[in-house]
Amino acid sequence: MRALSRCCLLRPSHALRTQSRSHSSHDFDVIVIGGGHAGIEAMGAATRMNTKTLLVTHKTQTIGEMSCNPSFGGIGKGHLLREIDAMDGIFYGNQLIRHPSHRYDSIETMRALSRCCLLRPSHALRTQSRSHSSHDFDVIVIGGGHAGIEAMGAATRMNAKTLLVTHKTQTIGEMSCNPSFGGEMSCNPSFGGIGKGHLLREIDAMDGICPKICGMESTDFQYKVLNRSRGPAVWGWRAQIDRSLFKKHMQNKVLNNTPNLTVKCCSAEDLIINKSGDRLECQGIITSDGQRISSRTVVLATGTFLRGQINIGLECYPAGRIGDEPAIGLAKTLESAGFKMGRLKTGTPPRIDKQTIDYSNLEATGGDRPPLPFSFMNDSVWIDENDQVQTWLTFTDDRVAQLVKETAHLSRHVREEVRGPRYCPSIESKVLKFGHKSHQIWLEPEGLDSNVIYPNGISCTLPEDIQQRLINLIPGLENAKMLRPGYGVEYDHIDPRQLKQSLETLVIDNLFMSGQINGTTGYEEAAAQGIVAGINAAAKCLHKEPLTLSRTEAYIGVLIDDLTTLGVEEPYRMFTSRSEFRLMLRPDNADLRLTQKGYEMGFVSQKRFENFSKTREQLEESEKFLKSIAKPLNQWRNDLGIDSDSRSGSTKTAFDMLGLNECSVQQMANLYPDQLNAISGNPNASTRLKCEAAYERFRSEEQERAQQMKSEEMLEISPQMDYMTTDMNLSAEVRHVLSHNRPKTIFAAKRLPGVTPAAIVSLLYYMKRIHKSAVMSPNDCLTKNG
Q1: Where are the coiled-coil regions (predicted)?
Q2: At what angle do helices 590-601 and 606-627 cross, to 10 degrees?
């Protein structure tokens, strides 16, 4: 039982019961003495017949040891092995072979299994057939950070039987810049921002978890929309989060209010990979205590844990996060399976005692009035606009730059060749790149009752004593006390060009990946990938078509397309500038773009869909009414009280007028109270109506461009395309780029650096020529999506 206790399983009490028996006066039905080949087969046969079995052996470490030659079979002996296998025996079964190409992996697997030798109920975690399924779970999600939580949530909403594997249940919901096994909040205590806020609104439109937790009472204490000086299409929803309350609400949601879910506390050491025809398939995991858990699909959301390494000054040690061991076995498995791997790094700043800061000369910033909620399910936020907590702004100066330059040689993290985040670099990287330029530092509280301040802008990996000196050189922080130092973390990631748009891997079927393992950075990017991976993992189990979001449909589509087409050379961060269709993909209309699709596919609840339908109906009716009223422009200006020298007599609709900066929904409601008072009294709805009107004149042009892009996205290129053939008129550079990136569509090929328009024409012409049919258009030589 001590062996079993190393891996705790949280699930309904009846989930792992053995069948009731009348002969309960015995401790066991069968006792097998000896852990050799005879004993293992005896034990296996007994447990498969649902008998309560005890295996007694001298040492668990020697179970599965092959004392003689490392082979099975031979003349006559092979007949015995085939017969044992026919009776579902252990030693020759495929269940022991993690990689079909490795002949003797059965030894290694038996050693892993041997770490748990007492016994488990015979049908608790078996890979053999059960009455309702041949797998223990439909979906296994590895990692309890933001990617893992959203993947788990999406799969369970689609009624897939789901297992969440995480190091500790106590750390679920502790926000982290390494959103992996449990997600300790190592990064800033906030959600959203420019581009990132779009992702969160889209996650919410698909009934995701994180935006809903953000909207719960006491979780957020400051709401702000960034980029308000620009148009609403690029506004960035952002909220400061109370770490402890976010964690509390998230754990309650995951552990107590998620049907179809089992949570298992351990690490996943390996994947169960079998061969099906000429393809590899992932069929489950092997945990740190040797348990084999089978599933139809697996989602990896391991964050920074793949061969993770912590750096503070010149010290380094293996860890995925402070206090947790890295995932070495998984990294080796992915590498041996043929994945191209890379290495990235990130970091976190030191924490400061709130009571030791001098705020007298710092610039204070409050929240918006009125504040806008993250979730489409909320019309307002829980906190009064006047009670929002402040943040403070300070700056570095030449003294900080001088100290960094003098001590940079003491930071292993900075000296490493590994690429870090360009848009959220460490203070060392900023100084070494920009010299003595001053840099902003936002002092952000970590909670309503917390004494901890997060200094956003000085991510640091210098030795601890130097970090304290650096802090005390910053205005307002001269006497500040550092509570704990910042640190850097290096980790493995896969080349995301090895993923489909569904986030299933091209190398191994049934294996999905999301979050920092794909080379991204940030809570929001991780959560966005997680919800798509979870949806598609469940969809595959349920024999449904995968959810693929185009660049024309969502920022999530932009994110995934960038990853799978271009790959990453540095941690990927979302910005509004990455989208070609910013006017269509606004944060205010994410539900109009995605909620209907989610409801039809099964991952959006009835409650959310009904709320969405009412909102859509209200917006459509208001827009229809406003478009039905037309007047000369000068009359509109008189009616609305808008000053103008224009005497134009051109006719404009009320909807046209609402699109002007000078006109508000309230002004229109004053003219037509019966039709518009309801929507004008709702700040969210009136803002959305105003946005629709403002961007109406750009809609047709952007939709036309989007349609052209969609047609190019539909043109698929064969994965076996030979770009080196002399029959294709391409330069050596273009051949190399296309061969290296293997674009999946013509649109993807057009986006690759170095691929010219002439090369695209040549590619289309070649594909037309080799097509068997006589056709008029190169489109016909390509396969169509769906």
Answers
A1: none
A2: 140
